[in-house]
From TrEMBL:
Pfam families: NUDIX. It comes from Crenobacter caeni. GO terms for molecular function: catalytic activity. Gene3D superfamilies: Nucleoside Triphosphate Pyrophosphohydrolase. This is NUDIX domain-containing protein. Residues 1-105 form the Nudix hydrolase domain. InterPro entries: NUDIX_hydrolase-like_dom_sf, NUDIX_hydrolase_dom.
């Protein structure tokens, strides 16, 4: 992981014709090589927060669910790591906000 960059969870923009949940399933395969168990998808919330390294805001849509496979760096992902909330300063601003939101909504 490049220490000069903030950490962002996997994901990208929702393609035309996709739902947030179908975009999630696609991105998990493309970027982490894992398959989402589509019956397990549960919407949690949407967070609005500052974009990283560009003006404006982003709106990450958050889900919970189960997956099959071992996560690995694929496509444009250079590295993956499990991080704790104690490492929140490494997260991009919107991800920090997402973590705060998750603590309030569990």
């Amino acid at each position: 992981m490049d220490q000069a960059l903030a950490c962002y969870p996997h994901g990208d923009k929702i393609a035309p014709g996709e739902t947030p949940a179908s975009a999630l399933a696609r991105e998990l395969v493309e970027e982490l090589g894992i398959r989402l168990e589509t019956d397990s998808i549960r919407y949690l919330y949407t967070v609005v927060g500052p974009a990283y390294s560009q003006p404006g805001e982003v709106e990450p849509v958050c889900f919970a669910g189960s997956w099959a496979g071992e996560p690995q760096a694929c496509a444009e992902i250079s590295a993956i790591a499990w991080l704790t909330l104690g490492e929140a300063e490494k997260f991009a601003p919107a991800v920090q906000q997402l973590c705060t939101e998750h603590l309030h909504h569990g």
